[in-house]
# Entry
Amino acid sequence: MRGITKRYPGVVANDHIDLTIKPGEIHALLGENGAGKSTLMNVLYGLARPDEGEILLDGTAVEIASPSDAIARGISMVHQHFMLVPVLTVAENILLGEETMANAVFLDRKEAHRRIVDLGRRFGFEIDPEAKVGSLSVGWQQRVEILKALYRDARILVLDEPTAVLTPQETEEIFAVLRRLAAEGRSIIFISHKLYEVLEIADRITVIRRGRVVGERLPGATDEGDLAELMVGREVELTVDRGTSHPADARLIVSDLHVRDDRGSEVVSGVGFEVRSGEILGIAGVAGNGQDELIQTLIGLRRPVSGTVTLGGQDVTGHLPRAMNEAGVGYVPADRHRWGLVLPFTIADNIVLTSYYRRPFARRFVRDEAAIEKDADRAIHDYDIRTPSATVRAATLSGGNQQKVVVAREFDRDLQLLILDQPTRGLDVGSIEFIHRQTIAKRDAGTAILLVSAELDEILELSDRIAVMYRGAFVAVRDGRTADKNEIGLLMATGGVDRPAEASTEASA
Amino acid sequence: MTGASTGASTGSRIRDVTGTVWAIIALPLIAILLAFGVGAVIILGSELLVGEPFDPLLPLTAYAALLQGAFGSFDAIVDTLVATSPLVFGGLAVAIAFKAGLFNIGAQGQFLMGALAAVAAGVAVSGQPPYIAIPIAVVAGVLGGAATGFLPGFLKAVSGAHEVVTTIMLNYIAISVLAALVSGPLKVPGSPSPVTYDVGNAGYPVVIGRDGHIGIFLAVIAVFVIRWLLYRTTLGFEIRTAGANPDAAAYAGMRPRRLIVLTMVLAGGLAGFAGVDVALGLTHQMTSSFGTTVGFDAIAVALLARSEPIGILPAALLFGAMRSGASLMQIKAGIPVELVDVIQATILLVLVATPVIRRVLHLRGTQNPLATSPTISRSYGSESVL
# Structure
């Protein structure tokens, strides 16, 4: 890619970017949210047209007008959010758009199955083409996405944050697959925010900042600090100094909590724990082990079947979201687009999303626009939200800035309990640093913090205590400063082989 | 240097603004033009079928007559405004529901019940002085519509029954209730046809021309009141949040069920006001065939206006003009008034096919994944579509 420039109203997303990918190379693309990585990849994949510049494939200039163009030329993309149909089988998903036909009407399933199984073996995994995609783990779904690309004979494979949703073990497995692909002479463009991963897997690293290439590094000749500095443009503390915490009285006490999911099956089975004031309790666990329902119960969106929740000495079991909010519970959701923001609304409206009905933002039932905007301007300043104004729609902000809007709303008041659900998912190092600092500050101000994440490093970095959640129960609690990453990873994946899950559900420290 | 750069940025800002304006009005305009094009084709086609001497300019003649019928004289303009006013109320009734992510297809039923209640109350107080009679009849009509809107809202809140299904059913129930009451308890004794008494002093006073009644002004006021409600009150904020992101609304403690009921009551009340407008402003009594399609046209009005209260005014005016100009078109060009229905339906079809049209015409908003989110089924016109 040579001299790629793409302008959007008000911004130059790509400013004369040159990028060369060699055959058989794993090339990492690093950059903050909004640095222009996605735009560049969209240009390559035919989703956006460059204003200037050209794409050369094997030395000849090509024009890529659409994703089908890109696929025809051997360029495939695996999106961060999988584009799979859960109710279809692995084979059906792979065949979508690239049907292997026996005749004009019917699919040649046999031939397709054979090719899928062969492809899988070639890259080191056995896959059942008849399995429903919805029943697969995220790690396997990702392999289906990769298979989809290989089935179309992709020579250049773009992976957009492939490890964001994987456990450390799954990540290792995917890396093995990627190395085999590269060994076959295929090129891989690997987009990630996780510096250590990039250092581990990449053959070459290109760093983009504000639409420009600011550096190229070989993994042997650099380190995380160097890369982070390149990305952000200043020195970054990769791990915030968590200092010492001073846990005081038990703020949140949960005992013998049972919660059902929407289908009525019990997904939280007798969880009991406490979080003290000025303490961070991390809950580690593979997604889908009851964390979501546990959190929903704590913020009032779900009624528990039995058990009690006590906050600051008061029984708040089964209270509604507004009551929980007023009792001083803050919440940063993992899926900010679904739970945290109203994307078509302005930043100001999003900041008052939970307090819009109170003074000074409303008098009786009439909104006070001036007060709302003033508060938003203050939050934009205090939380360093990069935006032209408070009246910009949240949808137009980058992921990091969107998350800062949520953080501004949830952190910026007197809190008893702060629930953070994967608060830095998909964010760049600069934003992560910011959010971690704010979290530590909140802890030191005496808030009880519950941190839920599939991102083990985050949990290890911040938590005073770590509880591992497996199939609706806490299977282990470890001290946050001495916990062993591999042990926790193993507990997350298996629930602990030698100990029955029931034995340790009462896991208060 | 600085001068040049500010000049350039002002230029691009103007481009941005015109671009935004274009993005908002392009689709409705295209829909309208396409619909009139389709109407023209149908006129030409019918000529061929009938086998009269072929007049290729007949569509133009017809549309000219339509225009003349709608705006050709002072009386014509007043008639157009009179036909527009219930569409404004109806359009608001559908639009406010869209804003909350609800599809109120039952505006017609709420409209009929509103008219019926207004007439029933109006007849009862027809002898009172107007300043007493009119408010009573208006309130009765609005309550009638609101009650009809409450039912589907309540059903959805308690059982999840989809409002599209329940409101369609209620449309039929409304027709039957109306027929039963007008030929039963409300019928003028001894009258050969099913018809009620006149509402007398409860009728709207005429303030412009032959029959330009005060409903015209009430409709304009209603637009601004609803706009204020949606954008300046906490309730409006809740309605818009529930429509744009129900999950975030629930998290923010907004009580979605209560909002559904409340929004449907408001929508029903507005549709009822449309009924009041026709009953007290125009017909002054009720017959069993009272059944203009205001409630259905209102859906098209709301869609055309993209559920924005201000947009309801031009959209309702367009449909009102077509309705009131159609008879002159029939007289002068021999084209049946039903052509207006064809045009209206085509506008609706085009609007519902929004994502397709955006893609074909490369309109702005294609990159925005929100623009292609489910439209009509959940929240056309709620902010998730814009």
Observations:
- The beta strands of chain B are 206-208, 212-213.
